[in-house]
Amino acid sequence: MKRHNFSAGPCILPKEVLLQASEAVMDFDNGLSLLEISHRSKPFVDVMENARALALELLGLEGKGYKALFLQGGASTQFLMVALNLLEKRAGYLNTGTWSDKAIKEARIYDDIYEVASSKDANFNYIPKGYDIPVEYDYFHCTSNNTIFGTQMKEFPKSPIPMVCDMSSDIFSRELDFSQFDLIYAGAQKNMGPAGATLVVVKEDILGKVSRKIPSMMDYKVHISKSSMFNTPPVFSVYVSMLTLQWLKNLGGIPAIEKENDKKAQLIYSEIDLNPLFKGYSTKADRSTMNATFNLVNEDLKETFETMVKEAGINGLNGHRSVGGYRASMYNALSLESVGVLVDVMSELERKA
Ligand SMILES: *Cc1c(COP(=O)(O)O)cnc(C)c1O
After folding, report:
1. Ligand 1 contact, 50 CB (< 6 A)
2. Secondary structure (H, E, C), the chain
3. Starting from the edge strand earliest in sequence, which strands make up the sheet with 278-280, in order?
4. pLDDT tens by residue, 5-16
5. CATH number of domain containing 60
6. Using one digit for the tens of pLDDT, what is the confidence trace for 77-107?
7. Are residues 296 and 169 in the same domain?
8. Nearest 5 degrees, angle CA 54-CA 56-CA 57?
9. Rounded to two decimals, what is the model's pTM?
10. Distance 132 CA to ligand 1 centre (A)
11. Nearest CA to 142 among 226, 128, 134, 150?
12. pLDDT value of residue 2
């Protein structure tokens, strides 16, 4: 049976990428596996350089003073690393849910972080707007897409200070002026590849301004000076990320995938809005094109719906425990057809009920 993978992360990857990746595990370089060659060998150095270049190219940041790095420790390590590298006096954070909350908690080890705004009052079902960012602060941090709550920033503030963004769950999914950000980070496992690598894109001129000593592994400048090879990189994750970025480029890059992502989002949200058995979780204006969160109006239908979902080959639809209900994650590699299968199940439930 064909499976339709709506998992929030780790999540769906393009079939051809998985095929190429599995071949490289067996034979990448003259009979040797990708996993058993030196990361300093030319074939792997080329992979790393290609992955870094593709990331900048797809984001439109080539030749603009940015460096791309593939680091370890997940996006969660970036919560700490951002503060270590950029926080001297004070920073402002926009709190839009669990992930921003965690970023704030880590940065608070170094400073009593200022929350410029928060949507905690409504369990993060909307994105706060109209807040001020103090000019005297070191940086402003936001989360572009809130994977758990299904909200997404459609507009970014004109920040008078460096803007740092956690784009883990919507990087490479939509066109933005990426040069408005000074540092972008994203764990690979949501729109790029397997867990293990974290993409960091940083404008070099914001670095080197704090007085503290930074441990080498935590220092962006060290990783930049070693071309993202300060220590053994997560070779498999970097390789698969490179393949996915190449796949995206061949499709026509971010503008092409954004059109597909918009179609998928329109399809699911129109069903959520038209079908009286379901209600959406997030505020309409802030709905995420990557993670659609919704609930059954009548919980008595839970078992019937979930059985139908299972029979249709749909995987990973359960909502996060802090929201409940359902979450359809529709990352770049998920097809419009898969969203169609889910929408058919939802309307079939309406016919039955
Ligand atoms: C998943 C996720 C994270 C955590 O990523 P890890 O790589 O598991 O540390 C952080 N931020 C956002 C927005 C996420 O979706």
Report:
1. no
2. CCCEECCCCCCCCCHHHHHHHHHHHHCCECCECHHHCCCCCHHHHHHHHHHHHHHHHHHCCCCCCEEEEEECCHHHHHHHHHHHHHCCCCEEEEECCHHHHHHHHHHCCCCCCEEEEECHHHCCCCCCCCCCCCCCCCEEEEECEECCCCEECCCCCCCCCCEEEECCCCCCCCCCCHHHCCEEEEEHHHCCCCCCCEEEEEEHHHCCCCCCCCCHHHCHHHHHHCCCCCCCCCHHHHHHHHHHHHHHHHHCHHHHHHHHHHHHHHHHHHHHHHCCCEEECCCHHHECCCEEEEEECCHHHHHHHHHHHHHCCEECCECCCCCCCEEEECCCCCCHHHHHHHHHHHHHHHHHC
3. 278-280, 291-296, 326-329
4. 999 999 999 999
5. 3.40.640.10
6. 999 999 999 999 999 999 999 999 999 999 9
7. no
8. 60
9. 0.98
10. 26
11. 128
12. 84
Cβ-proximal residues to 320 (8 Å cutoff; 6+ apart), any chain? 8, 98, 147, 148, 327
Do the domain assignments include residue 1?
Answer: no
Residues of the chain with pLDDT under 50: none
Range of the domain at 171: 15-251
Statement to judge: residues 266 and 309 lie in one domain: yes
Q: How far apart, in whole angstroms, are the C-alpha atoms of residue 190 and residue 194?
A: 8
**Structural domain count, the chain:** 2
Distance CA 168, CA 190 (A): 7
CATH assignment at residue 287: 3.90.1150.10
Separation between Cα atoms, residue 60 and residue 8, nearest integer Å: 27
Question: Residue 170 C-alpha to ligand 1 middle, in angstroms?
Answer: 11
> Do 148 and 297 belong to one domain?
no
Mutational test site, ligand 1, from 76, 100, 106, max ligand atoms within 8 Å of CB: 76
**49 is a domain residue:** yes
| Any atom of ligand 1 within 6 Å of the Cβ of 166 | yes
- The whole-number pLDDT of residue 112 equals 81
User: Which of 204, 230, 251 lies at the terminal end of a domain, its last residue?
Assistant: 251
75 Cβ inside 6 Å of ligand 1: yes
What whole-number distance in Å separates Cα of residue 184 and Cα of residue 166?
6
Q: Is 213 a catalytic residue?
A: no
